[in-house]
Design brief:
Pfam families: HTH_38 (PF13936). The protein is mostly helical and 219 residues long. The protein contains nine helices and three strands, in the order H-H-H-H-H-H-H-H-H-E-E-E. Strand 1 and strand 2 form a beta hairpin. Helix 2 packs across helix 3. The model has no long low-confidence stretch (mean pLDDT 77).
Amino acid sequence: MEKRKFKHFSFEDLVKIEFLLQNNKSIRYIAKQLNVSPSTVSREIKRNLNEYGIYEANLAITKRRKRYYHRYYFRFVELGKYEEFSRIFALKYDKKVHGVKATYFYIAENFPNIKRPSLKTVFNWIKTDKWVIVRSNRLRQYYKKGGKRTRNAVQRLVPAGYVKPIWARDKSIDSRQDFGHWELDLVVGKKVSGHDSILTLVERKTRKLFAKKVRNKNP
């Protein structure tokens, strides 16, 4: 029987992969059972491991749905729902003094009743170069040339173990019921070169703010 070069696995296929892996079957053996190439099985497993490095069929199907959703989420028809959000975003956004995250949360705080997408969706819109803000409107966050900077300023100023991106934090944190969850940001002066910046820490429950002046973005 001729092997199919590529296929979208059904949920039954995913369950079979999980079962065979639990029984210590090789990727080549699994590929033969599913009539696909070993590379197809290997790719499926690598893309859908859980945090412990174990393949789970339920997790695999959930990840697939999320990938599909975000890939096709950007539609101009969808933007009609967020017309007011887009208008305010375009007016408030300034890549030097009021970046994407700052603008997003400014709108969330000051216009709580308008419909707004998730922050991750906003970044996806920007990547399409078809929204009110495009990639060229953003300050570059990383430097690749010459193997220099590979982290943004906040990541260099604060150890990575203490920080999670907003989209990765637990949903329970959004309720602001528990003390001890902090938001971190860097306020860069309008004239960046030779001017100090301000590193801010805000406790989500109490809204207590700490600000620290930093001489530059290189700790």
